[in-house]
Amino acid sequence: MAGQLIGLLLLGLLAAGQAAQYLSGTEAGRMHGIASEQMLQRYASAYRSLLVCSAGCDAERLVAALQARDARFELLERLPPLPQSSEDAVLLAALRQKIGGPADLPLLLRVRTEDAQLSPLREETLLFTRAMTLKIAARLPDGRWLAAQQWPVVRDLWHSLGYSLLASGLSVLVVVVLFVRRLLRPLRALARASEQISRGERAETLPVRGPREFRELAMAFNLMQERLTRFVADRTRMLAALSHDFRTPITSLRLRVEMVEDAGLRRAMTRTLEEMRQMVEATLLFARDESFASARETIDLAVLLDCVQQEHGALGHEVSWRGESSLPYRCNPLGLKRVLGNLVDNAVRYGQRARIALLREADGVHIHVDDDGPGLAEEWLEKVFEPFVRPDAGQDRASGGVGLGLAITRAGVVAHGGRLRLENRADGGLRAHIVLPL
C-alpha cells in the first residue's frame, strides 16, 4: 500500500508538471530560444569576420581560432546534401537577417537530434537535457562554404520538469513516507493480531487511535474477538453442564443394569452405556480443547519428537524419527505433542509401526507420520476427519474409540495455523502429512 501511494503521488507530480508545461506554451523537443539565438549569432559573427578579412588574412587560421567546445567550423570546397525541415526555415530567416548579406546568398541550415555519444558535450550535458546538432553552411565570395556544427541546449519535458520534480518530489516523499508509516502502523498491528487468532492464540486488545476509519476498524476487531471468546466460553460451559448431567443417568443406568438377570443382555447394555460414556467424554474434550488454548512458547521440535518416541518406546511400540536435528518453533507444546501422539497411536495400532520425518521447507515445517498398514480407500482420506465417523466401526469399538481422534487432531493442527491431510504412500502404508507455518 505504501508503494502504491508513493507511486500515485509521483504520477500526480509528473502530470502536474506536464499540465504546467502545456499551459505555459513550452514546446518539448525544440531548441531553447536563448540557445538558438546564441548559436545563430555566433555563426553570423564568424561569417562576417571571414568576409572582412577575406582579402588579406589567412582564412584557415581564422577558422581554427573560431573552434569551441560546443561549436566546430570548417571551410569546404563542396557541401554534402543538407535536407531542411520546417523548424529550419524559421531559423534560416533569423540567420539571414543577422548576416545581413544579399537576399540570394546560398544559405543552408538543418536542426537534427543527435545521439548523446556523438555530442562533444556528453560529459558536460546537464541532467534532463537531450543532445541536438545544429548544422549551418553559407557560401563565401570565393566559392567555398563556411560550415559549422553546434550543439545547443534543447527544450525537453525533463528539462522543464526535471529539477522541479526532483526537488519537490524528494521533499514530498520524505513527508509522505513518514505519514504512510504512521498511517499503516494500525494495519500492521491488526495483521499481527489476526495471525495470532488464526494460530489459536489470544491477541491483545488493539489500541483505538489514528484516523476515524482505523479507529472503527480497531473497535470492530476488538468486539469480534470479545464475542468469539464469549461464544467459545459459553459453548464450553454448556457442554460441561451437559456432560455432567449425562454422567448421572448413565451411572444410574449402569447400576440398574447389574440387576438384570440375563447375562447376555446385561453385557450388551453395559457395552452400550460404556460407548455413551466415551462419546460424552470425547465430545466434551473435542469442544473444550483446553490444551490447544494454552499459551504459546518457543520449543525445539526435535526434542519434542524425541519425547514422543521415548514415551511410545516405553510402551513397546516401534517408533522412529529422522530429519532436522534442531528446529526451534513457537507453538503450544502440549497441544502439538497431543497431535503427534494421536497420529503415532493410529500408526502403531493400524500400521504396526510409526516413522516420523521432520523437514523444514520454504512454505513451512513439514511433519510426516508413516505406517506400514493397508492404508485407506480414497473416499475415506478426508471423511475420517469428521466427528464420529469410522471406516471400520467394529474394529474401532474394540479398541475403545468413538471416532473423534482424528477430528481432535486436525483441530489441534488448525489451531496452530497449519493443515493436516492423509495420503496413501506409493510403496504401501498411510502417511499423515502436517504442514505448520513458519
UniProtKB/TrEMBL annotation:
Q: Where in the cell is it found?
A: Cell inner membrane
Q: Which CDD domains does this chain map to?
A: HAMP (cd06225), HisKA (cd00082)
Question: Which key words tag this protein in UniProt?
Answer: ATP-binding, Cell inner membrane, Cell membrane, Kinase, Membrane, Nucleotide-binding, Phosphoprotein, Signal, Transferase, Transmembrane, Transmembrane helix, Two-component regulatory system
The reaction(s) catalysed by this protein are:
ATP + protein L-histidine = ADP + protein N-phospho-L-histidine
Q: Which Enzyme Commission number(s) are listed?
A: 2.7.13.3
Q: How does it sit in the membrane?
A: Multi-pass membrane protein
Give TM segment ranges.
Answer: 161-180
| Keyword Nucleotide-binding among UniProt keywords | yes
Alphabetized Pfam families for the sequence: HAMP (PF00672), HATPase_c (PF02518), HisKA (PF00512)
Occurrences of domain Histidine kinase (ranges)? 241-438
Q: What class of enzyme is it?
A: transferase
State the name under which the record lists this protein: histidine kinase
The cross-references to PANTHER family, in alphabetical order and at most eight, read:
SENSOR HISTIDINE KINASE ENVZ, SENSOR PROTEIN CREC
Its cellular-component GO annotations read: plasma membrane
List each copy of the HAMP domain by range. Answer: 181-233
Q: Which GO terms describe its molecular function?
A: ATP binding; phosphorelay sensor kinase activity
In which organism is this protein found?
A: Candidatus Dactylopiibacterium carminicum
Classification via PROSITE patterns: HAMP, HIS_KIN
Q: Which N-terminal residues, if any, form the signal peptide?
A: 1-19
